[in-house]
Design goal:
Blueprint lengths: L2 H20 L16 E5 L21 E2 L3 E13 L1 E7 L14 E2 L2 E2 L3 E2 L1 E12 L2 E2 L1 E5 L6 E2 L2 E2 L4 E5 L10 E14 L17 E7 L1
């Protein structure tokens, strides 16, 4: 080996050793639980609410237009008693015409930037293992409060009303899911051509 190469390797080794001595460290931990039970959510009519065709002239020009509310049956079926919460994800995030509200889901965009409208999702008539229950919500999984309204900012579970409010384990839960869509004022939209109403929400199971 030439003297210059030996000198270079020696310099690199010394530099690496100096860096190793000076470097701080960080630890990565992977934690979690593997649960023997599993839950499966389902919605009536395959989770589809088809509003059909709505004439542009039927929309309010300068104020939002509330469209007909719709009721779906939400069912969560588990293999065994399980603590679980539903986490909604707005698949059209950023398209709600009422962006100031944390409980509104979007209905899609027109021309890439015109917000078509928004919708609320609300739970009622909750029954967990044949016992009446109530919907509750939490943003931190520690503090729960009564909340029939679902939001992509927090999770929704069910409780029997005991204080303090806590999620209730169940094998079978059913609830009415109310869908309340609203179209933005027609004056804010380009409606010279047919445009799709494109709301989409994913309900994901979270095991507690």
């Amino acid at each position: 080996m030439s003297q210059s190469l030996s000198y270079l390797f020696g310099t690199l080794l010394l530099g690496a050793a100096g860096s190793a001595i000076a470097a701080s460290s960080v630890e990565l931990s992977v934690t979690g639980l593997i649960t023997p039970s599993a839950c499966e959510p389902s919605l009536s009519n395959g989770g589809v609410y088809d509003l059909g065709k709505i004439a542009a002239k039927a929309l309010n020009k300068d104020r939002p237009t509330a469209l007909p509310a719709h009721l779906m049956q939400l069912t969560v079926s588990c293999d065994a008693l399980t603590l679980v919460a539903l986490q909604p994800t707005d698949n059209r995030l950023g398209s709600s015409s009422d962006s100031a509200s944390p409980i509104k889901f979007g209905l899609g965009l027109i021309n890439g930037n015109e917000k078509l409208g928004n919708m609320n999702l609300e739970m009622s008539s909750v029954v967990a293992d044949s016992v009446a229950a109530r919907p509750i919500g939490s943003a931190d999984m520690g503090t729960w409060a009564p909340s029939p309204v679902m939001s992509h900012h927090y999770m929704t579970s069910v409780s029997d009303g005991s204080v303090p409010l806590m999620p209730l384990p169940f094998k079978l839960m059913t609830a009415d899911l109310h869908i309340l869509p609203t179209i933005a004022p027609a004056a804010t939209l380009t409606l010279t051509e047919q445009v799709p109403i494109d709301g989409s929400v994913t309900l994901t199971m979270n095991y507690l």
